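Ex. 9. Protein: Ferredoxin.
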Amino acid sequence: MKTFLDWSAYDTYGIGDAYSGIPATGGNYAKAVAVCMHSRDCQKTAKGVMCPSFRVTGEAKHSTEARVAAFKAALNEGSDARAFADPRLDEAMDLCVSCKACKKECPSAVDMTLIKTEYLAQRHEIRPPSLRLRLFGAAPEWLSRYKTPLRLAIKAHNRLPALAKFVERWIGVTARRPLPEPAAKPLAAMTESATGERGAVVLFVDTFCQHFEPEIAEAAIAVLQHAGYAVRVARPAPTDAEPDRPLCCGRTYLTTGLVEKARREAKRVLAAFQDEIAAKTPIIGLEPSCLLSLRDELYSLGLGPQVGDLGKQLYLLEEFLAREHQNNGLRMKLKALEAQRALVHGHCHQKAFGAMKAMRKVLGWIPGFSFEIVDSSCCGMAGSFGLEAEHYETSMRMAELSLLPAVRAAPEAPLIANGFSCRHQIAHGSGRQARHVALVLRDALEALPSGG
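Predicted structure tokens for Ferredoxin:
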């Protein structure tokens, strides 16, 4: 069976292992599906993230185990790619939010996020992707090429209920939630420091920071420069066919099954970082889903060993600072903030990759600052999931499991959330604004000495 992703990592799975029931068709992809050992951890509702859809429906059919069963049945009964036309797969995957929790919390490490990407890519071969899916998937291109008209159109959508309802009927984008509005001002042309006593770093500015919240990238630059690093913002390689279009991790393409476009973006990233890979320069990202996609899901695109070299140099801002503190003696000069207690919501990918420990550490450097990390599953926004009309109610039910009640219970506490989607969901569900850790750290910086 032709697959769109590289599943060779699963080539030896099933040899001598306890599990069985690998489907007759599907090759290594079938092996990736069959790693499920039916522990049913995906049907628990205690601590953790997995499985958001089961948690809100209470129905086993919306769990990771049930999705695996549906794929096994379809691959056993179908014929090669035609197996993906099985309507049972549509039902099984409908509420999957690609949270990545199963890869971390499932004892068998079922990677349902990548399984879903392959499923969507196969479905597109049978049935062309919808206009809505193509719009969401290609958001990085639309924002780069048509940002001003898009901004005006989104502002009109958010202010004219009749227009929002028309869009909902036309392409299925909910009228019950405002769309994120692109920023009026672009990312400032920050002065990139040529030297830094602690060495050089590269800042990867993702699509969401670039076009919606450039102040986060600006804050990260200020924090890194204050800490003693020479900062350069990542830009496309001189040989790039689109040198003026910002780099993109390809995440929106992967989550919508547009794999070839994701592969194109990944190649742009690898080309842009050739020198950094050779020099082992740290590359720092801000949006968890973007940076961690580069560190994890790039392997699935079959782009060679350089992907592994790049992955070793990729850090979220808080991960990099925590590592430098532990290994290289970084001690930041921070001052107390006016607010002394905050609530922190972790993005699903931060939790799946163990990055919340770094968040705890760097926030703990702020004098007199205390915080509580909300014990929550997925916020429910999950990229475009919460914007889809048929999923709006489920999205809000996910938020109401624990996140929004915790926010309402602490009306005076500042809110910290690194995920763009998470901040959007919190704002919609509570009317309050959460902030990225880069902004919090910037506010806590002690003023540099005059002339420093």
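Check your answer against this statement. The CA atoms of residues 167 and 214 lie 28 Å apart.
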